[in-house]
Every structure is written in structure tokens, then in C-alpha cells.
């Protein structure tokens, strides 16, 4: 089984907090899809005989490009491999792109899941984030999507400059009232080289401190849990079985193949595990899409172990204590580490497996680092 990711690098503008690879001009959309077709043809041997369970169009803003380009690539890829009967084809979208006709077109080409970059249901936060849509549009687009698609995900951001808990509570209660099948909760991160970072460093803006961010996150976990949403990953909550299939595959370290500039891939064989990444420059990608790989790494046993610990805790699938004792060199210190984190209320030990608590999700990376290296960092 294989999952696919396609990076569509076009956006109308760059949000103040965004550090993803993108370009804000759309003059090269047609050239990009020609290059994408060439990269796909080059990778055809990797697809032959494979069953595809999930495809994810990310970016950038995939909803910005004309639908016929997406349809053409899907037809192409379907000729090279086999789609499972229940394949999930997800597309990230901004509200301002999604009128009724656009949604109908997306559904007609096989999109089964819409991931909406709502970010907030309040104008105050949307303006602070530099988003183009309004609070009213956030609600209207979500309602429209829920009528068109069986699986709809809503992205929300907390920790916006000036935000206090009541504003975040309003976002969450509005989301719950709409009842999307999936909600992603992201704590705003101030990334280097972003406009937000420059504003914070210069004192133009200030973001909530770690304690406030933690209270936002814990409130989200509590409310969404009460409303029947399963907290299946650090930032993600779903009703029933509506988890993101592509994301869950990558967190579970299942093979996936990425297309487009900056896309990553993960290959697994009996001999090795390999991670690759495409070049993050559109002009270079357009010039030679068949040679898109700019990074290739064969993972060592230590790196594989590290990934398994970090990612298993991230999705809270449980970590076997027996596995940890065999693979690391902590010996009896592992018991001390487990006891310490149990005392903090961050983990639970059930039938020989470690699980994070709701509060423990806040410290997933710290816990993993302590388990791997024997000390908190």
C-alpha cells in the first residue's frame, strides 16, 4: 500500500506566519503541471503494481489552480497504478476559492475530503493572521463543504497575537456547532524568516506565552473530547474514522511518494529505509523535474529507532516497553523515566505500553527525547 502527496506551490499571498515553500505568482501554473507530468512519468516504475490508498494535494493552495489541471494529473496517475475502492483523495483549500461551482467541480473529479484553511471564525484573528477571508465566509464555506463532501476538515490556530482564552473558546464552540468530521488545532509557531517573526522581534507584535498556549490547547482537548472527537494525533481530532489517511500513513512510517517542489518521500525495503526531498525552488523544478530529488538519506538503525519513538508518541498508538528495553541502552533508567512522567500525569502505562495523556501531548517531543537520550532537553 502506498500514499501519494502532491505539493501545489501557488498562493495569492504569503500569510504572516507561513514558512512553507510557495510562490505568490500564478503565471507558471501550466508549466508546473507539465513538469509534474514529467516527474510522474519518471517515477512510473515506482508506481507499477502498487495500490494507492490515499492522495493528498497540499501546498501552497491547491484550491487556487483550475480544477482541470488536478483532474488531468489524477487521470494520469490512475493509469500507472491501482486505486483502492475506498481511496481518500484530499485537497487543502482556502475559503475564498470555494464557491458552489468550484466545490462541485472538485467533487466531480474524485476529491473525497476537503481540508479547509479556516484558521479562525473571528475577524479579529483572521486580520491578525493576514487571511483574506472573513468570519462570515469561514462559517458559510464550512456549511457548504459539509453539504458537498462526506469528510471535511477544519484547521484552527490558537496563540495569535493579542489572543486571550475567550476568543479561542469562541472559535472552538463555533467549530463544534458546525460539526465537521475533523478538526486540526495548531498552536501558532513563530518561525524564522516570517513576517510574524520580524514583528515579534521588533516589538510590533507579541504572542501568548507558553502557559497561555498550554491553556488554549488543554481547553481544546477537553471540549472536543466531550463533543465526541477522538484525539488521535498531537494536533488532530476526528469523529468516527475520519482521520487524515495520508497524514496517518506518514506518522505510522508507511511508504509515501511525494511530487512537486519541496515534496518528501519515504521508501521501505527489506534492506533499507530511505527519505528523500525534492528541491524547493520552482524554477529548478520546472527546468528538470526528473531530477527533482535534492536530498536523499538512508536511515541508520539509531535514526529508525528515534523516528519510531517520536512518531509513535505523536499519534499515541502506544509504545511497547519491551521494544524500548531491547532497542535503547537505558536499562533500569527507563523505569525511572516512566515513573517520573507518570507522576506528572503525562503518560499512562497500560498492558506494557506507554500512552500519552491529554496533557502529555503538550510534551510529546520532550518525553520522546528523554526516552531516547536518557535526559530531558
User: Would you report the number of β strands?
Assistant: 15
CATH superfamily of the largest domain: tm_1862 like domain
Average pLDDT, rounded to a whole number, is: 93
Q: Estimate the strand proportion.
A: 15-25%
Helix % is 40-55%
Please count the helical segments: 15
Structure description:
By secondary structure, the protein is α/β, with parallel strands linked by helices. The chain folds into two domains: 2-249, tm_1862 like domain (pyruvate-formate lyase- activating enzyme); 301-373, Orthogonal Bundle (Arc Repressor Mutant, subunit A), CATH 1.10.10. The protein has 15 helices and 15 strands. Helix 4 (100-108) links the parallel strand 3 and strand 4 (113-119). Helix 1 runs parallel beside helix 3 (67-78) and helix 12 (301-314) runs antiparallel to helix 15 (364-373).
Descriptive key words:
about 375 residues, alpha/beta, pyruvate-formate lyase- activating enzyme, Arc Repressor Mutant, subunit A, 2 domains, 9-stranded mixed sheet, 3-stranded antiparallel sheet, 15 helices, 15 strands, about 25% strand
Lay out the secondary structure.
Elements: E1 2-8, H1 29-42, H2 44-47, E2 51-59, H3 67-78, E3 82-93, H4 100-108, E4 113-119, H5 123-129, H6 135-148, E5 151-158, H7 165-178, E6 182-187, H8 195-202, H9 210-226, E7 230-233, E8 236-238, H10 245-251, E9 256-259, E10 264-268, E11 273-278, H11 282-287, E12 293-298, H12 301-314, E13 319-320, H13 321-327, H14 333-343, E14 347-350, E15 353-356, H15 364-373
Parallel strand pairs: 1-2, 1-9, 2-3, 3-4, 4-5, 5-6
Antiparallel strand pairs: 6-8, 7-8, 10-11, 11-12, 13-15, 14-15
Amino acid at each position: 500500500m502506498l500514499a501519494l502527496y502532491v505539493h501545489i506551490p501557488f498562493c495569492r499571498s504569503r500569510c504572516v506566519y507561513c514558512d512553507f515553500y510557495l510562490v505568490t505568482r500564478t503565471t507558471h501554473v501550466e508549466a508546473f503541471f507539465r513538469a509534474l507530468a514529467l516527474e510522474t512519468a519518471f517515477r512510473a516504475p515506482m508506481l507499477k503494481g502498487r495500490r494507492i490508498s490515499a492522495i493528498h494535494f497540499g501546498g501552497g493552495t491547491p484550491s487556487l489552480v483550475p480544477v482541470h489541471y488536478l483532474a488531468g494529473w489524477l487521470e494520469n496517475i490512475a493509469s500507472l497504478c491501482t486505486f483502492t475502492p475506498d481511496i481518500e483523495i484530499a485537497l487543502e483549500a482556502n475559503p475564498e476559492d470555494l464557491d458552489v461551482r468550484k466545490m462541485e467541480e472538485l467533487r466531480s473529479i474524485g476529491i473525497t475530503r476537503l481540508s479547509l484553511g479556516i484558521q479562525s471564525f473571528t475577524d479579529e484573528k483572521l486580520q491578525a493572521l493576514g487571511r483574506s477571508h472573513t468570519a462570515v465566509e469561514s462559517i458559510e464555506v464550512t456549511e457548504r463543504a459539509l453539504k458537498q463532501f462526506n469528510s471535511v476538515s477544519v484547521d484552527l490556530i490558537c496563540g495569535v497575537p493579542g489572543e486571550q482564552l475567550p476568543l479561542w473558546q469562541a472559535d472552538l464552540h463555533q467549530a463544534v456547532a458546525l460539526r465537521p468530521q475533523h478538526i486540526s488545532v495548531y498552536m501558532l509557531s513563530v518561525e524564522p524568516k516570517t513576517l510574524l517573526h520580524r514583528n515579534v522581534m521588533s516589538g510590533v507584535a507579541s504572542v501568548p506565552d507558553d502557559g497561555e498556549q498550554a491553556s488554549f490547547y488543554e481547553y481544546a482537548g477537553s471540549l472536543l473530547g466531550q463533543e465526541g472527537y477522538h484525539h488521535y494525533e498531537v494536533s488532530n481530532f476526528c469523529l468516527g474514522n475520519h482521520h487524515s489517511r495520508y497524514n496517518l500513513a506518514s506518522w505510522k512510517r508507511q511508504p509515501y511518494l511525494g511530487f512537486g517542489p519541496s515534496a518528501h518521500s519515504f521508501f521501505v525495503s527489506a534492506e533499507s529505509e530511505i527519505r528523500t526531498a525534492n528541491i524547493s525552488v520552482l524554477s529548478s523544478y520546472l527546468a528538470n523535474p526528473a531530477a527533482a530529488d535534492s536530498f536523499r538519506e538512508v536511515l541508520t538503525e539509531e535514526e529508525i529507532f528515534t523516528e519510531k519513538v517520536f512518531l509513535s508518541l505523536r499519534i499515541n498508538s502506544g509504545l511497547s516497553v519491551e521494544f524500548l528495553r531491547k532497542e535503547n541502552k537505558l536499562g533500569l533508567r527507563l523505569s525511572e523515566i516512566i515513573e517520573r512522567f507518570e507522576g506528572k500525569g503525562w503518560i499512562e502505562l497500560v498492558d506494557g505500553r506507554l500512552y500519552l495523556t491529554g496533557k502529555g501531548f503538550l510534551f510529546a517531543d520532550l518525553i520522546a527525547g528523554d526516552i531516547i537520550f536518557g535526559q530531558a532537553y
